[in-house]
Amino acid sequence: MARYGRAYPAPSRRIAAPLSTLPPPPVDVRVTALAPNEVSIAWDPPEAGALGFGIYLDGVKQGDDQTATVATLAGLVEGRTYLIEVDSLTDDGRSDRVPLVVTTPDVTAPTVPVGLRFVTATRTSLTVAWEPSTDNVSVVGYSLYLDGQRVDNVSADTLVYTYYQLAAGTSYLVTVDALDLSGNRSAGAMLDVQTERDHPPSAPPNLRATTITYTSIAVSWDEAADEDPVTGYDVAIDGELVATNQPQRTAAFSGLVENTEHTVRVWAVDAVGQRTSRPAELVVRTLDDTPPTAPVFAVTVGEEAITVAWEASSDDFGVSGYRIDVDGEPAWSTPGVDYTVDGPVTRRHTVTSLAPGANYRVRVVALDALGQESADNTVVVPMPPLPFLPISSPVYRLGPWAGNARDEFGVDWVVEDASGWASTPPVRPASTVLGGVDGAWSGAGQYGSRVITLEGVAVAPSQAAMLAAKQRLVGVLHPRDVGVLRVEDALRTRRARVRLVGDVEAVDRGPLAFSWSITLQASDPRRYAVHPVSASAVVGSLPGQASLALSLSGTYPQIPARLRLYGPIKDWTITHEESGTVMRAMTGASLPPDPRYSLSFDLATRQVLAHVPPDVWPVPRPGRSAVAHLPAWFMLLPGLNTLTLSGQPLAGASGQPRLVVEAYDAWV
């Protein structure tokens, strides 16, 4: 900014008289008083004296000679420089003139700048103009103010000025004053002005849907217009703000409900923080999905179980799984494939523990990814009644025959003695301890086989019925076949796999009754539950691990189980946490993600089978080479059993490996 100083009268200067032959001039000519329109001077007479003194103003003699040594010159113009001279008059003539340069003070301010006016404005600047001021001497410049604060000085020939870096839409007081050479400042001309209001960005144009599915929407829009740069966009769906000042001009929304309207709004945001006053708006409806078709299914009825098999359902969005409902309650569900120890099962399941003679409402439900269910396809399934009526407990069953029961022909079969079923077989010491490496497990010995003898009496309603009952008893189990003996009491039902030992005996006790005896042998002394206990562990990502928990009842200290391992996985380990035993893969052994490839382990027989697609190998083949030797095997224990699957990823394969375990509660 230019700065201007006030002009003050120049000090008087004494000018020494030059050497001359003329009479001596006055001495010490000086200013004694100075005013805008007059000046008073004084001097001393020369040493030789003088007859009088002459006074000159700008070379013009002022009046007659005077004898006084003081004088006042009036009628001067303020701010003007004058030459004042004084000489002496003697008998020898006039002396040289002694000069004195004097400037009268300028005390008159310039006129107020007239015509101060608004020229133009933007959001951040204002331009004003004015007419030139006048002054008795000279205007040297103008000062500019904004809201009372001086912001700049400009020269006298500048009559237009622009203020910058202002706030948009704001009123300001502009003031302009003039300055003369002596520093006199005029009063200020004032003007109220206002910058242009800053307009928010326009609504983003061309808001449009780019993708619409059953559960998602994707939208895009074009760039919004604004005086300032647009920095981003705010996005909302159904009144909920989901993005703030995002730079992208696209948005996607998932997890929506099918066949539902959704309102998308988009605002533009500029560099000064302004937001679109009214957003762009788009109403979009997700696609309308129809429920899956009702699966066609068939039910195979057993004595206390039903097997449900169904055909694939179709859906325009995609079937995600199936569910079996029994009497309105979910009995089982699958994402499409059930991984079991018997292999992957698709669209088939057995529901157990059903009551004989009862009617059950069975429904197969198809589900899609939206959670929609297929139409009701419930059928009523009657369970066949038991072919006998219990008359005492426990009930012994071997195939179609039942002891402690009245059969369908009216014959009462009474069990008078059941030796070998409730007792514990003797311990047979192990010949060697293998320590869990292979074959037998470490222990004090093994239980021997179980021999069960059932004896009793049968009472028939007629002699013909008695004869027929004998025939049925003799044919209940062929000597070369393996049967299942089921014993059911008030607490539980248990079973054992048995063979017939010797002949079935039947001795008459009268015309309608006979004594009978059946001797059976079970190579495995354990008495198993009828239905298995199963669990599975799924590893979310590799390398990693997952555990399953299996709780087993019973009294047998070692309980065999069946395991099935599915890929993709490499260098796997299966750890029985309670015993600390680890079954591990042979180094480098792996399973692909195809569920047709798997390894099954029978902990009772220590058999490993490798399962492959039939077109690769028609039947399962030995897979023992896939398992490392030390340590290798374990048995499950009564109570809690925790199995942990871990391993390494298989290069280029995706999926989640899983371990499936199935075991039966066992008693001795």
UniProtKB/TrEMBL annotation:
Pfam families: fn3
Domain of life: Bacteria
UniProt keyword annotations, A-Z: Carbohydrate metabolism, Glycosidase, Hydrolase, Polysaccharide degradation, Repeat
Fibronectin type-III domain sequence ranges: 25-111, 112-198, 203-293, 294-386
InterPro entries (alphabetical): ECM_Regulatory_Proteins, FN3_dom, FN3_sf, Ig-like_fold
Name the UniProt record assigns to this protein: Chitodextrinase
Organism of provenance: Nonomuraea africana
